[in-house]
Design goal:
By secondary structure, this protein is an all-alpha fold. 78% of the residues lie in helices and 0% in strands. The protein is elongated and about 80 Å long.
Amino acid sequence: SESTFKKLAEAQELIDLKDYQGSVTLLNDMLTSRRRKLNGNEVGQVHNMLGFVYFSMENYERAIDMYRIVASQGEDVPEGLEVTTLYTLAQLSFVIERYRDALNYMETWISKADNPGPQPHIFMGQVYYQMEDYLSAIDQIEQGINVAQERGTTVKENWWALLNYLYFERENWPKVLETLEILVRDFPKRVYWIRLAGIHGQEGNEREQIG
């Protein structure tokens, strides 16, 4: 409604001025006002803004509470807002080390997102890495790299480096060597050459170690 739109615009002005408490008060008044009951979309929009305010205040727990209410509105909010909110919930859950929640939100996001790229898989790989579930982390990082390669987009150095570390932790030496070969080829840093020579030496590949 027009009145809701105006109130949200007022709250946005307060946010722009970094008057976060003022915006919280205004938005909460919108939710508790008896003058007019908000519909599902309006409830979602108000809580979405509250989530952003609490995020800006680095109150991630409260931000998550607000964004969960947005997601719970389901079909009452635009699909784009629901999908974006799920991704935000996954990231915030990761920040406060609720790793299982982060994975659950991301899995739901992937089921709803239109043609997701490599980054969600890389993110899930990082979550599994923090959980020390290295096999699952490897699976997700590999999926992310495959998606990037299929699309002809850049595979980032830190993706290969994390995958290399995960293979190392699993003592999968052929894969360790394979990823190190890629790292020295595409990102020729001294540290990668030293590691590559060391693994070749460990595996008894003297000729490759010298080369």
